[in-house]
Design goal:
Elements lengths: L1 H4 L9 E3 L2 E7 L4 E9 L2 E9 L5 H14 L6 H7 L4 H9 L11 H10 L5 H15 L3 E3 L2 E3 L5 H5 L4 H4 L5 H16 L4 H5 L3 H9 L6 H10 L12 H11 L6 H7 L7 H10 L7
Antiparallel strand pairs: 1-2, 2-3, 3-4, 5-6
Helix pairs in contact: 5-9, 5-12, 11-12
């Protein structure tokens, strides 16, 4: 998980230093600077700072948000049992033992990141994310240093899309991000309501947003809504990983959907593990 979160050594939002992950968590009524340290098979939580003195319920919500980031409630033994009949995926379960799909603190963060990353390299997407956070996010000062965060939807909703275009995003992406933020601010995009929907219904609702296609919605379901059964079948990297491991007949959306019947209910995790096979080892 640290390897995944630390892919960009210059990331201003998701910061990895050694075995520690740092992130500003937005609790709507307050914000917390959170440090998660992975050691001895455990995840240790430390609050490095608050925007303002927290109430007891805000401390509880912060702990819930931290648990969400590391998918603490996901039972990987259930995943292992579900894919036991697929020897190649079972091999990955053993290879990546204990690895969970990291979640963004809010679904809107996942949506923003997914839109930024549409049809460009991961490196350039990270650069755009960094520029967006520095230019329009609201930093939290911790021990004299600025911890950057992605802009809240209320802040983005007030911007002209051109304010994002000057950072290097396309006009289409700029309109999509600002449009999504305005939908959240207006209440027409209610992530709490999406939480109560079946995965496919939530994906369809997200697809109704201007500039948000199926891949983006499936990614948000996976990393923003915490669904274990989302399959971004149109993802080129996933198709490449599946073809390498299972054969070229699976290098298409249709092929992937056929293959994914073996992982029913755990398509997100099978996807994430296949993605990890494409990553270079840390160091």
């Amino acid at each position: 998980m640290l390897e995944y979160l630390g892919r960009d050594p210059h990331d201003a939002v998701d910061v990895v230093a050694g075995a520690t992950y740092r992130r500003v968590v937005d609790l709507e009524s307050n914000r917390a600077a959170v440090e998660l340290r992975f050691e001895g098979g455990e995840t240790r939580l430390r609050t490095a700072g608050w925007e303002r003195t927290p109430h007891r319920d805000e401390r509880a919500r912060m702990r819930e948000a931290a648990a969400r980031i590391v998918s603490a409630d996901v039972d990987l033994s259930a995943f292992a049992r579900a894919v036991a009949g697929d020897p190649l995926m079972a091999e990955l379960v053993a290879r990546f033992r204990g690895v969970k799909v990291p979640q963004t603190p809010t679904p809107f963060d996942a949506l923003t990141w997914a839109i930024l990353g549409q049809q460009i390299s991961t490196a350039f997407a990270h650069a755009l994310k960094r520029r967006l956070a520095v230019a329009h996010g609201e930093p939290l000062t911790v021990r004299g240093a600025a911890w950057h965060a992605l802009p809240r939807p209320e802040r983005l909703a007030c911007l002209d899309p051109e304010a994002l275009t000057v950072l290097g995003t396309t006009r289409a992406k700029s309109r999509a991000i600002v449009g999504a933020a305005r939908a959240v601010a207006a209440g027409s995009l209610d992530f709490a309501a999406l939480e109560g929907l079946e995965t496919e219904a939530a994906i369809e609702r997200l697809c109704a947003l201007h500039g948000v296609g199926r891949w983006t919605s499936e990614y948000v379901a996976m990393r923003g809504l915490g669904r274990t059964d989302s399959l971004p079948a149109g993802d080129v990297a996933l198709q490449r990983a599946a073809a390498t491991r299972y054969g070229s007949r699976y290098r298409s959306p249709e092929g992937l959907r056929r293959l994914a019947r073996r992982w029913r209910g755990w398509e997100s995790y099978a996807t994430f593990y296949l993605w990890r096979t494409l990553s270079k080892p840390a160091g």
